[in-house]
Structures are given as C-alpha cells and as structure tokens.
Amino acid sequence: MRAWTGSGFEPLDPSASVDETLAADSWLVVDGTVLALDRHRDRFARAVADLGGDPGAARAAVDAAMVLVPAGTWSPRVDLTPDGIRLRIRPAPAPASTARVVTAARDPRTLPLRKGPDLAALAALQAEERERTGDDVEPILTTDAAAGGLVAEGAWSALLWWQGDELLVPAASIPRLPSVTAAVLRDLARADGVAVREATATPDDLADCEVWLANALRGIRAVTHWHGGPPVAPAERASAWRTRLSALRTPSVAAPIASRR
C-alpha cells in the first residue's frame, strides 16, 4: 500500500488498509503495456472530480503508479479514500477465456455508475452465489424486477451479446459502470461497420446468443453456462476479438519496460 503525496507515492505500513473506498480504478499491465490507459485515467479523474477532488491529481497519480509497476503481469489499483489516494500493485489474476454465470438473487449496488464504493458488497454477493450454485460463477446483475429483470452487467464485468451480426449492450438507461473495455469493443465494432445496438433485455432474451463478459483484467470471457438461465451459443467470435484487443495494448510512456528489467 502506498499513499499519494502530490508528487509521487510513498510506502505505508504493510498492515494498512483502505477503510472506505470512495472511488477506484484498476487495469492490467503486461510488461509495461496497457489497453486504453487514457480511458482509465480519465474515468478515475471524473470520479474524483465528482466527489469534489482534484482531477489533475488523480491523473498524475495514475501516471505515477505506472512508474512503480515491475516487469511481468500486474494489476495496479488506485483508490480515493477519505485520507487521500492510495495505490496497490497486485499480481494479475490468472488468465481466463470463459466464464460461468448466474442471475444474481439481489442487486447490492448503491452507486452503480462509480467504481469503488460497491466493491465489498459485490464480493459478498459473489461468495453467496458461489455457495448457492456450488460453482465458480460471476453473478449477472439485473434491474427493474417489474419488467422481468433487465440485464445490466456482471459483478466485475460489462455484459455484451451477439444477435446475428449485431453486437448488443444494455441500454444507456440501465445503471451500470462505464466499462473501459466495453467502450473499446464498441469502437472496434463501429470501425468494422458492425452494428452496435442498445437493448433492454431479460436473461431469457439472451437465449442462443454468444454472450461475453468484458473487463480490463481478463479482456473478453465467453459465457459457457448460465445457471438456471438461458442456453447460450458457442463462442465463435471471442477468440478473434481477444486478439484484436491485445493488438491495441501500447507501452506506457511513464513506465518504459526496458528501464525496469
């Protein structure tokens, strides 16, 4: 754990913890390369500004974090706390290309448009759903029970699906985190002339669709099984689009990998 001083990060006591996360962001670093770091930087800065903080300091903290990332595969995370900005550089999770999901029994989110405040509640939800299903699942959050429960996002990921040649995402009216990875995928689709459509959909509306979870740490994961939910189609597109995302990774100017070997 490190604390932002205004010009860099200084170490904190190893036993220190973040008591309250007001905003957070995290991303994947592979030997100094990152996908869309500018978007992560801007998302964190907007969250800090919305809370009355200095967006310039937030952007500088993200860049300073990159200087501290060693060679290898890592997941830096910045948190805005009542005591300032904190940094943790964590080993990245193991790669995964598939995921098993379940429709969440409840929605614990209180601030779905901002990453950070709901992380602990989402972790508790995932533990509940893993115990309920007996499987390593990611819960799919839904809203508007009166409409049958409209899909919003995964506990840790954006949700996207394919109907024919169209890429679908939840409608903008459905509260969810503004995902950096999903935004990049939408840009790629539009550049290819692929129709991207927003939709209000229940889990059953995704039956026989290729369904993806997407986030910064694991890229695209194809959903292979939906516990108690719709049958999903085999992942025919996911591998090629993963390759395209990887090709967009760029070296961080703040952290040239050659200087850290």
Can you give keywords for this protein?
single chain, 261 residues, alpha+beta, D-amino Acid Aminotransferase, Chain A, domain 1, D-amino Acid Aminotransferase, Chain A, domain 2, 2 domains, eight-stranded mixed beta sheet, six-stranded antiparallel beta sheet, 5 helices, 16 strands, globular, disordered C terminus
Largest sheet descriptor = 8 strands, mixed
Q: Low-confidence runs (pLDDT<50, min 5 residues)?
A: 256-261
Instruction: Quickly give the structural class.
Output: alpha+beta
CATH topology of the largest domain: D-amino Acid Aminotransferase, Chain A, domain 2
CATH class membership of the largest domain: Alpha Beta
Average pLDDT score: 95
**What's the alpha carbon Rg, rounded to whole Å?**
18 Å
Estimate the strand proportion.
Answer: 25-35%
Q: Number of helix segments?
A: 5
User: In percent, how helical is the residue content?
Assistant: 10-25%
Oligomeric nature of the chains? single chain
Sequence of secondary-structure elements: EEEEEHHEEEHEEEEHEEEHE
N/C terminus separation: 22 Å
CATH superfamily of the largest domain: D-amino Acid Aminotransferase, subunit A, domain 2
Proper CATH architecture of the largest domain: Alpha-Beta Barrel
